[in-house]
Each structure stands twice: as C-alpha cells, then as structure tokens.
Amino acid sequence: MSSIHEPAAGASPEEAGSPRGRQDDTDVLVVAEEVRKKFCRDLKRSLFYGVQDVAREALGMRQRGDRLRKDEFWAVDGASFELRRGESLGLIGHNGAGKTTLLKMLNGLIRPDTGYITMRGRVGALIALGAGFNPILTGRENVYVNASVLGLTKKEINAKFDSIVEFAEIGEFIDAPVQSYSSGMQVRLGFAVASALNPDILLLDEVLAVGDVAFQAKCFNALADLRRRGVPFILVSHNMQHISRHCTKVVFMKKGRVEFVGDTQEGIGLFLADMQGSDHHDGPDWSIVNGSGGVAFTGARFLDADGNAITRAKTGQAVTFAVDYERHAASVTDPLFDLLIRCRGEKLFQATTQSCGQRLGSLPAKGTLSVTFDSLPLHSEALDFCFCLMDGETHELFDWKRNVRLNVESDPRFTGVLSLEPTWTVTPRCHESPLSTPEAVAQEL
Amino acid sequence: MKSSTPTAPDAGPVVRYGPDPLLRRPGALLREMATDLLRSRELAWRLFVRDVSARYRQSILGYVWAFLPPIAATATFVFLRSTGVFSMGETAIPYAAFALIGMVLWQTFVDAMQYPLRSLTAAKPMLTKINFPREAILLAALGEVLFNFIIRLVLLVAVFLWFQISPPATAWLFPFGVVAIIALGYMIGILLAPLGMLYQDVGQGLTLLTTFWLFVTPVLYPAPQAGLATVLNHWNPVSPLVTTSRDWLTTGPSEHLGGFLGVFGVTVVLLLAGWTLYRLALPHLIARMGG
Prior knowledge:
The structure holds two protein chains of two kinds.
Chain A: H1 2-5, E1 28-40, H2 43-58, E2 72-84, E3 88-93, H3 99-106, E4 114-120, E5 123-126, H4 139-149, H5 154-168, H6 183-195, E6 201-205, H7 213-228, E7 233-236, H8 240-246, E8 249-254, E9 257-263, H9 264-278, E10 295-303, E11 309-310, E12 312-314, E13 319-327, E14 336-343, E15 346-352, E16 366-373, E17 382-390, E18 397-409, H10 438-444
Parallel strand pairs in A: 3-7, 3-8, 5-6, 6-7, 12-18
Antiparallel strand pairs in A: 1-2, 1-4, 8-9, 10-11, 10-13, 13-16, 14-15, 14-17, 17-18
Helix pairs in contact in A: 4-5, 4-6, 5-6
Chain B: E1 14-17, H1 26-39, H2 41-55, H3 64-82, H4 95-122, H5 124-127, H6 135-162, H7 174-198, H8 200-215, H9 228-235, H10 238-250, H11 257-289
Helix pairs in contact in B: 2-6, 3-4, 4-6, 4-7, 4-8, 4-10, 7-8, 7-10, 7-11, 10-11
C-alpha cells in the first residue's frame, strides 16, 4: 500500500503533492496521504523496537513500516484528507482512536510509518498549554520561555507582552512564581501566550475543555477570529457542540481508521450513532433470578401505541414497557414494582407503583406487567430500563433485572437529555416596562 | 505556478513528513541541521536562563553548591594522603592545588557527559508536545556546563592566589584544554542520550561509571609511570586532556600533547555523528515516550 505513494529516493519537498494532482493548489495547506502509525502494547518490547527503529534510521535503512511486529497495532491506520485555506477540521472519535497520534504526526513530532503528510505554512500547535512552564519562575519569565518554545522571537514577545498579560487577566501576579497561580490562571496564561502566535495552520488538542466560562468564551472568540482570517485549524474535541460550531468538516476516526471525512453534521451523527452502538451493552440474563424467585421475570419488550414490539422509539412517542413474569410463590398481592430509567449509568427517572399510588392487585400465575408512558420527553440516544419486583409489605425482593435497552431517535436539532419545544421571541423593553424589574415584582407582590 | 516559488503573499515553508530514511538525503539533512542550529539560538538562551535562574532560587547557599563537590573531594584526598593510606608520586605544585584543579576539570567533564541526557529527560513533556528546534535543548545543556565551569573558575583563581602559584607562559592554552574536555564529555553524553531516553539503565550506569572512571584517571594523582595503571591511563581518553590542561595552567608544555590532539580530533568527528544520531533518533524516541 505504501509503495504506491512513495516518491523516488531523493524526492524534494517541492515534488511533494497529493496523489490527486493538486501540487499547484497553494490553497491546500494540509495533505495527509494514507498515513499510518503503529504502536506497541508492551512497554519493554516497545523500547526494544525503539532501539531497532533508531538503528535502522542511523544506518539509512528503510523501516519495515507496513509490517506489524509482535504486540504492535495500528494507532493510525490509513488516514487521508486535505485541509484548505478557510476550512476548519474537527477530529472526532473515541478515546484511543488515534486522534492525538495523528495530530502529533501533523505537527512533525513523530513520523508516519507509511504514507506522507504535507504541511504548507507555519504550523502552530496548542497540544499542551503552558508547556515548559517552570513553577519556580515568575509568570513574566515563563511567558518569555513559553513563547520562545512556541517559536516567537524576543522582539515579537516584547511587542506582544502587555496584550498577553491582559488577555490572561493575570494582573500584578505576572511577577509572582507560577506555582502560586491557580490552575485556571496557569491555563489562561498558557493560552494567552499561544494566542500570540500567528500561524498559517493551527492544531488544537482539547484545549477548549479546560478553564471557566469566561476563558472558554475567549477561546471560542479566538477560533472565530481564526476563521474570519481564513486560518485553517484542526480541532480535537469530545464536545460535539464545539465541533459543530467551529468546524467546516470533520474526520471521524475509529480504532485508528478514518471512518468518515466530510460534512460536519453527518460526521457527528455517525460518531454519535457509533458511540451508541459500541457503548458496551449487556442485556439482562433471563435465566438467572436475582432475588428470592417468588416471582421471576422471563422477558421484557417495548411496544408502541398500537401494541407492536419496537427497539427504537422517537422522542415524544408513546411507549409501553412490558415485562413477562412467572409467579412461583403461592400467591402475591399488591407487589411493589420499581422502575429506573438510566442513560449511560445516570439516573433519568425512577418511580414505583407505591410512589404513584397504584396497586397491582393479586398476580396471576403467568402474566405481563406493563408500564405505559403517554410520551417519552427524553432525548438521550439510549435508555436502559432497570426494574425489580418486591413484596409490598416485607420488601422481599422477588427478582431484579437491569439494562433492557431502548434506543431513542432524537431530534438532531437538539442536544441534551430533555426534549423540550422552545419558542424564541424578542420583546422590546422600555425603562417603565412593568415586566421583571424588581420594583414591579415587589408591587405585584 | 509551482509550489517551490510561492506566489501567495503568506505562503510559508512546505514541509513533508514521511517514513523514508533521512540519511538517504544527506544534503537536505545537513541543511536542516544547520538551519535548526541557527534557529535554536534564541530558544536555547531562554531555556538556559530559565534553568540557571531556577536552579538555585529555592536554595540558601545558592552558587556555593557549585564549589562544594570539588572542595569536598579534594579535602578527602588531602586528608587520606596525609595519613599515608596510599602513596602517590610527587606533584610539581602543592598537592591541594593540584587536586583541586584536577577536580574542577573532572567535574566539568562529568557535567558535559551527564547534562545532555539530564536536560532531555527534563524536557520530555515539551518534546512530546511541541515542535521546536531540538538543538535548543542540547545548546542549553552546553550553556549550563560552561556556566558551571565559569563559576568554578572562581575557585581556581582562589587556589592560585592562596598557594601563590604563578601561571607559566602556556596558561593561555588552558581554555583550549577546557574546550576539549567539555567536547569529549558532551560527545559521550550526546551519543548515549538516545539510548538513555529509552532505558534508564544508561543514566544509572553513567553515574556508576563516573565514580569508577575518576579513580582510573590521573585527576587526584599524577599520571602513573609504571604498572597496570599506566595501561589504563593509556587507553583512557580523559587522561591526556586533564593532564595536558593542568600542565598548561601550572607547569608548562605537556608531554601528553600528542594524546590530547588525537583525542580531540576523534571527539570532533564523533560529536557531529552524535548530533546527527540525535536528530534521526528523536522522532522515534518521542513515539516511544507517549504523553
């Protein structure tokens, strides 16, 4: 695979170009062609392979890049994409999908095992904020060090120093040692220094995930400013809101492979759908009774309004949760049915027959317990139903089952857990407006 | 329009990363090494200032710590010698002065040998996350070695005043001796650094070796004239450097000059090889370091 794209030995960077013949297109600032990188699971072996690789490199021998040695795996497996001026790329995927490794290759920190990366222009990378900070030194000293590491000259730093301090909102603390800073201050100072860079291409790794609201707002505006100036950036984030707001396209990676390149919303949709699918789901084992067995659950299913079995429901649709049971005890009257709905381990709803003031009466020997919801105003992709049946008096636990899964097709316009139907309006507010001024509220009371 | 002649006003440099061995394009490699070395000067200075100014900030004695090890070693040997535990040849200048000058030179050699790996290990978080000219770390380390030596120079001046030694005409050659000693240590340090970043054994081994090495080098005793020690001495690259430098500074022309020049020549060649190896190895090392 790698041989297709390998240029003749001695190929100069000028001859480099994408296989699609875009050599002349100076608007394409980043090209990745079939980039692969392998890592090793075992530390000792990894170190030994490191020695091997260095030895081959030192002898000018070609690395056997396309072959996996023992315990190796592809951390990035065949990534190809382009980034043009004015575009911004979101890099999404699960933890360990290879996003950061790809970013490190784009930054030139590590080299691809096969494939090529071409970067056209000065690359700035915000992979770690405040790298090189020495806690004993003052903020001022660290600004100079950090900015130098990021590639600014002393002249540039002198010129931008005041705006850096202002941006970071550090104030007189600039002459205090960095170890006396709060973590928020350190991050702000790191970002302030980094934002003084003026790169042609910017790489950002999860830097928006830190800091308080005011700081994040600054980050967003810094990104907006980049977009206004047409500076392309690559953003790694787990926050799909950030990705969809700031990126014109996405690369979705899964286990090192690029699953999708293209439209942001489509890519995010694929990623979320995949997350739902791969979210390891253990349904209950119906052959095991978790309790005394006075009543045993034998199966459960979801029904729509017409009584048809479903595994997916739309937000707002009527859903009935039906549980089949067999009674083994001589008789059971008014048992307590406890239902809990969770999403990724988080409780969304819990109720019992008792808390709802309902009685089930005497249970037939075999039957179906049903819980009907006229509408499920929930917005999570996957709902896990957990339930148990207890004796109403003694609370003897008959049986208990967890994680019967209902998938919800949520409205792509919204995110979050709750499904609401908002209406947006603007009303002019005069000084005398009776609405919402404290005096008006006081008068009304 | 060709990308080699960019017409867009803000078109920056074009860089291409791939798996091909960099040694197959030695011209480009050397060019990159040269540009990066130039490019790294300012950053190296910053890192040097950072490390030096942070080093003693949390200390009361401060720079005194730079003097203490050679003084302690010398004091020990002056004491041992006075008790007659072991015998050694006579020295041309007072023994304490002889030993102290030797220890200052030796300490400089050890610094030069240990700083590259030490600085690289400390810079790991930066190396794995930021692309900056890698030479900066090495240059900053070299700066620290020089800085340490210059502080200890104060000690040497004190010795000369105290023992009222008048330096011979060859004293002006002494800086060349120091340069050669630093170059030798630094060369060994750089050559070992790539392996040392993978395996901690290298750093540990180096410390152990240093102790042993001191005792087979005529630092605290004059160069032996006979016996097994002579053989060891003959194959020990540090010996001619230390002996020649000390002779130049205290007595005059050295009989070990031939060895000195030979070692220095080999050192310069290996130093360039070590630098090249460092550049070639670093991306592979960073891939193994994670972070």
